[in-house]
Amino acid sequence: MELLEQSGALKGSLGAQEQLSLISGCSDMQKAVEGAIHIQECVPENLELKKKIFVQLDPVIDDKVVISSSSSCLLPSKLFAGLTHVKQCIVAHPVNPPYYVPLVELVPHPETDPSTVDRTHALMKKIGQTPIRIQKEIDGFALNRIQYAIISEAWRLVDEGVVSPSDLDLVMSDGLGMRYAFVGPLETMHLNAEGMLSYCDRYSESMRHVLKTFGPIPEFSGATVQKVNQAMCEKVPDDPQHLAARRKWRDQCLLRLYKLKREMPSE
Predict the structure, then answer these.
(1) Which residue(s) pair with 92 in the sheet?
(2) What's residue 49's pLDDT?
(3) Percentage of the chain with pLDDT > 90?
(4) Which of 71, 128, 145, 206 has the least CB density, counted as fewest CB within 10 Å?
């Protein structure tokens, strides 16, 4: 927190020490949530464990508090099944590391009250995040569906000997990722022609042709996983020390990008 404050990236109106003074632990569920307006569950991505937490929360909360899960893939209909306060339940999936990557996916249960979505959206904006509304349940939500589509094709390209693992990563880090850090794929289409209609008229046939050549879902095993692992370990050995150092470097890069995006005009 102090490092964030020193770098000018600390969120909120309070200083680092003031924020830290408001954080405390509690082993009693009822006491922990007393007076809360929003509860954010952050236990590991295990359906039964998360459901156990929500079953414990359900009888000790009032009719106003929002119950939110940080799940990245588990469907709200499974997470919140059978709860009395289901109208107050929502998935609010942050992106790792959430302090530097502000996106939060808001995914309602089919019975979630619209006011729950609105309140969570407003809270996330207030604390400096970028909430988006997923209109209905779908496996993987939006972010992981897009991420897995990229990973899947990346894996196939390496598996088929089209490109090396290291060059594949450059396609994103020094190619697509640079422009996608500021404009998304749909706006990229819009800007890469004389608008969206022009782009689709010009490139839809070639896009469909390429998409038809995509292969089956990879197994992420066998010789290819060994090949990819070897390439990754040559760049970043997989011992705790090297991985921690590389994550620190990544986070420093994300911090600089986050600050740049804050400073850039939106138009």
Answers:
(1) 106
(2) 98
(3) 90
(4) 206
State the pLDDT at residue 9: 84
Given a contact cutoff of 8 angstroms between Cβ atoms, the answer to whether 173 and 165 are in contact is no
The set of residues, in sequence order, having a beta carbon less than 8 Å from that of 217 and lying 6+ positions away, is 152
What is the Cα–Cα distance from 21 to 222, expressed in whole angstroms? 50
Give 14's DSSP letter: S
Predicted local distance difference test score (pLDDT) of residue 138: 96
Please, what is the Cα angle at 173 between 237 and 124, to 5 degrees?
A: 100
The whole-angstrom separation of Cα 216 and Cα 1 is 45
Max CA separation in the chain (angstroms)? 61
Instruction: Give residue 110's identity as a one-letter amino acid code.
Output: P
Q: Which of 68, 134, 147, 76 is nearest to 110 (CA)?
A: 76
- Pure H helices in the chain: 2-6, 16-21, 29-33, 47-57, 76-79, 114-126, 143-159, 165-171, 177-180, 185-191, 196-211, 222-235, 240-263
H/E segment holding residue 66? strand 66-69
Torsion sign (Cα): 13, 15, 17, 20? positive
Q: What confidence tens digit (pLDDT) does each residue in 39-67 have?
A: 999 999 999 999 999 999 999 999 999 99
Query: What residues contact 250, with CB distance under 8 A and at least 6 apart?
Result: none
Residue in 172, 11, 185 with CA at minimum distance from that of residue 98: 11
Q: Which pLDDT tens digit goes with each residue over 83-139?
A: 999 999 999 999 999 989 999 999 999 999 999 999 999 999 999 999 999 999 999
